[in-house]
Specification:
By secondary structure, this protein is of the alpha+beta class. Helix content is 33%, strand content 28%. The model has no long low-confidence stretch (mean pLDDT 88).
């Protein structure tokens, strides 16, 4: 077993004038290291397309996760989908990317734009064979995974972007490849790469997409552990134990909270050096301790990180803030969202007397809730999360 993992991000633009998206993405996990990703594009747009794509992606992902063959999947879809009364056909195009043990990708495509693979900063043409199932040409590929591979799957709304307006023939697949190659070495997450791609599609559409437009990005990378500690332990005698466990963990270390950073400094026998730079007037400044990768304030900073995390899972518009700013919340966001794959939280249960002031909007329960919600958001991003309480 290798040390690779998959960072997966997806998002959709809804056709202008519609309330429901005709594309649908489903991600199904087969154990810890195998994943099935399905992008389905329903015929037409609106409610009908939404139903077609939802049924297609759900059926395929369930059957593929159960290791059923693609021929059975296609026949089941053909027998299940309702027939469109206007066109007399019933289908949804689809792209399937199955990651097997994070070692190999199996790609199965029907009528969607072909999957793009960026490898070593450039487009890499994926070897493909054609299988005919019930009169449908299904494109099938198998390819070994390499570290830093980036797979991009799109619905045809992406290659139609700009047709008849900014571009005569739309945004061709080669244009998408050239555009995304420029971001290969930046280190953006899969979700951020997806956001950048769809932002460009939206611009080409003049802010009014003429078709449902979806993108799924899969970034293959090595596992990267990260550790965050916040709050002193409930029993003060456990300070050394908590810190010893925290600093024994592999990966970078983030210390949050004034009292917690003082305890960490004492444990490491290094001075705590506060910084006076307010990069964001709403976020308290950071500090420095030799041997610690990042030292920040506690609750206010973590609350901002949670807001960024919630937005990341929606439209990710906030990435334009946290991706470059130097305040504590933005620095934590970059470490947790972009760098980390496995995150260990060490959470102290001690009650901070300063938080018991009834005039302050912070109390012990709120602190616990913030950590729980942040951990859940990170889990939804595909991170492995472990929370330990002291």
């Amino acid at each position: 077993m290798n040390n690779l993992c998959a960072d997966i991000g997806y998002h959709s633009l809804i056709k202008h004038g519609e309330q429901l998206c005709g594309d649908h993405v489903v991600i199904t996990h087969q154990g810890e290291n195998s994943t099935v990703v399905v992008l389905a594009d329903g015929l037409g747009s609106g409610v009908k397309a939404n139903i077609l794509s939802t049924l297609t992606s759900t059926i395929i992902s369930t059957m593929m996760a159960a290791n059923m063959n693609i021929e059975d999947c296609v026949k089941t879809i053909a027998a299940t989908l309702p027939v469109c009364s206007e066109r007399g056909v019933a289908y949804s195009t689809f792209t399937i990317i199955r990651l097997v043990d994070n070692e190999e990708a199996e790609i199965i495509q029907y009528d969607n734009p072909h999957v793009i693979l960026l490898r070593n900063s450039k487009n890499f043409e994926i070897p493909t064979t054609v299988i005919n199932i019930d009169g449908k040409d299904i494109y099938h590929s198998r390819i070994a995974l390499h570290e830093n591979d980036i797979f991009i799957a799109v619905s045809d709304g992406a290659i139609h972007a700009g047709v008849g307006t900014s571009l005569n023939f739309g945004w061709q697949r080669d244009d998408i490849i050239s555009f995304m190659e420029t971001f290969y070495d930046v280190g953006f997450t899969a979700k951020t790469l997806t956001t950048i791609l769809l932002d460009e599609c939206n611009k080409l559409y003049g802010g009014e997409p003429g078709d449902d437009t979806s993108a799924v990005t899969i970034r293959i990378r090595k596992r990267e552990p990260m550790n965050l500690i916040i709050g002193p332990p409930e029993n003060r005698d456990d300070c050394s134990k908590m810190m010893a466990l925290f600093f024994s963990k592999e990966g970078k270390h983030i210390v949050c909270g004034g009292t917690t950073s003082s305890i960490a400094a004492d444990f490491l026998r290094k001075p705590l050096k506060p910084q006076l730079n307010f990069f964001d007037k709403e976020i308290p400044p950071t500090a420095e301790i030799e041997g610690v990768d990042l030292v920040t304030e506690g609750i206010i900073t973590i609350n901002k990180v949670l807001i960024y995390a919630q937005n990341y899972l929606e439209n990710n518009e906030s990435y334009t803030e946290w991706s470059y700013k130097k305040d504590g919340a933005s620095l934590i966001a970059r470490l947790l969202f972009e760098e980390a794959t496995d995150i260990n939280f060490f959470v102290g249960r001690a009650i901070n007397p300063a938080h018991q002031n009834p005039d302050l909007p912070i109390n012990f329960n709120i602190k616990m809730r913030l950590i729980d919600e942040l951990a859940l958001c990170l889990q939804k991003m595909g991170k492995r999360i472990k929370v330990s309480y002291f």
